[in-house]
Amino acid sequence: MKIVDCAPRTDKVKSSSPLSSVVERLRLGEEWQKDMQAQEGVLLALGQVLDNQYTLLRNVKLEGLDVPIPMILLGPTGIRVLYPSATRGVFRAKSEVWEKLDERVQIYRPVKPNPIARVALMAKAVNAFLAARGHALPQFEPVLIFPNPGTHVEQIRPVVRIVLVDAMERFANSLLQGRSVLDQEEIQEIIALLNTSPESPVAAEEQLRQADAFSFVDERGSPGSKQPPVIVEVTDKQMRKLSSKLPFSTRQLAIIIGLIVVNLLILIAIAVFVLANL
Questions:
Q1: Would you say the C-alpha torsion 70, 137, 159, 47 has a positive or negative sign?
Q2: Pairwise pLDDT comparison (63 vs 189), residue with the higher score
């Protein structure tokens, strides 16, 4: 299985800074960070089954969205939007409703965030994004994955596919056995559309043939290229609603400002120390 990290290089550099890491954690929340870490178990499980006909995109950013889509899996049998969740406990997924078992009274109660709604909205956004660019896909599925063995989900016709840790290998094998609906040329075109980490066209094509991790050109900024159409209005509104749930609070802004001030003071102190010892 090929793996492509679509996060822009600038984002990767920023994430290496301790201050940037704290800011990102405050913006998206601790649970989001844990979900990002849950990707590793999914990568391992799928990588042991899927061959190089399948490509997994990580950290996909669509136009106008602040929240990256954790994983998009492309292969001959279609496209799956994957959302690995690190949550633990006993839950019930009923249609679009997400509930957790209150062990004290043994009753299921609705809880937030709702991962079913989150992955369903992400899948709608990706589907609309590609449809607007001429790729109407016959096989497109949102998948919620729980790689933590401490998670149990009672399923009553959920609107998304739910895969627990003991079913990840079975899920991967089911993809191999499905009907082929995409050829490799169309898969490469879709990857190029979704990938927002630009490289030169020649390098991208060469890496696509030879490597498991590679980049593609984003031609939206090239001279004479046409701007792609925006995501359809209904999906854009839905996803903006999702993004708006993750703003900075007053307390978080105060913490961020405080961290910036502390870092500036440290830099000033270092500069004074160096100058004093010249």
A1: negative
A2: 189
